[in-house]
Fold:
Amino acid sequence: MNTHMPFRTLRRPFPAGIGKGVGAILTGIALLASPGTLAAREYPASAQVVGTVIGGRYGWNPFHAGNDMRRDARGVFRRRMYLSTTGGRNGDGIYAMRFNTGRELRTAFKRGTAAGRLVTGSGSASAGNIIFRIPRDGWYTVGFDPAARTYAIEPKVEEMTQIDSFQVNGFVHDREGAVECFDGRRTRPAEKWDEWAPAHEFTRQREGSWTITLPLSATGGHEKNGVYQCLFSANHNSDWGYGGIIGQPGRLAGGNGYDSRVGHAEESAVVFRVPKDGEYTITVWPEAYRYSISPAVDYFQGLEFQVNGDVVDDPWNPASPSHNMEKGAGGLWTKRLHLSAKGGSLGNGTYTMNFSIDGNWALDSIGFGGVWGRTWHSDPQEWNLLFRVDRDGDYLVTFDPAKGTFSFDPEVRPLAKVESLQISGNFEELATDGNGGWNPTDSRHDMVSADGRLFTRDILLTAGSVYDYKYTANRAGWAWSLVDYPYDGYRRLAPHGNPPALRFECPRSGIYRFSADVESGAYSVNLIQLR
Structure:
């Protein structure tokens, strides 16, 4: 198998979009009524609503039981929730959502071409999230009928469909900052990913397309190798987002913002490589879910998968030949791993693993969303696979990108939830851990918790000192590192990758309580005793 995937060049322009959307008012739960007897209707076992209407770290995760809806006798699923005119992605009362059934990625229901109607199945890629504005603070009931493919909200809300502005966000902005900030009203993502940055704005053309010209370089991008990753957003709302479909250059997938990606293996950011330095024009037809880039660029084909982590040599280099999986019957990919009960980076049989596509991190890793055996391709709330083996031997890992599943034969022991939390950093009282405060496997880093959700640790700090710190889970080293991710625009902990450490500048000497909520992602530092 090839270590580096070949690229395909796209030169074909796309037609103009299908025209402006129009605003609409949802008329209520009556939209959910559909003809037919109960016996003739199809009842899924469960349904989920995901989006900013839920909030928290798991708001977009259909696997999470906290996103379940309740079904009534007619087969309509409902969820009552409190929404605020200062809530939503941008704190302006504009919310985004979509639906799933059976806690499955492949059952996503997105907005159809008319208010109250939904699209699912193969056509859902060319559909987006439901975007709406609430008129006042209060309780709202969302109804979802998967058999009729309809939805409604009571009281009435304003559904938003017209695109008034369009942005490109991501690593295509080489000269912009990579640090998350707070603007006095809400947390903003790092400048590169901030949908409000002026340099990210497209220009609307008369025929309905949107264009922007950017200086790109063969030595630019996130890893300085000419590979660029970006997402598109409408109306400065990344949840009104558009991502790419790997292996189908020029085609966009709707509902794919930075934080709201659907999670399929084939849906990623728009990723491409520029062959030489120059000015590149991106043209997008949002209504047609199409885009083009001129001059021509190269694209990953999405034909190969790899495993990464301490299960293989050169653990976190997806381009290494030792990581390649083999494709078998039925589109299944396999890799035989030799694992030991005394192996892994900790030497106790605990291993860390994820999957990658075409040997490049720009296409983002594939981990799991908190349910063992299910894959999740949707940073930043995506975990590495963490597990333990009890005996030495060969283990066959199988990955099914079409179904979004993985398995081991023989079975391994999953470590699939946070059992303990540790804090590491340049704190004086942790300096003797053998690594200057950065040895998270040492028991002196443990935090305490009464409910398994909120963890705390009281630490003596010195006035004027600057402390950098990170949270990790299950004494598994850096396998599960929870830090505030700089690109999502939320002040909450995320498990994806290895972002920069959190920082606290101590104003007064004393004992400070560090708190981390592993469910919501909330974290804080508070003075509890002066010294």
Remarks:
- The two ends are 62 Å apart (CA to CA).
- Residues 1-31, 33-40 have pLDDT under 50 and may be disordered.
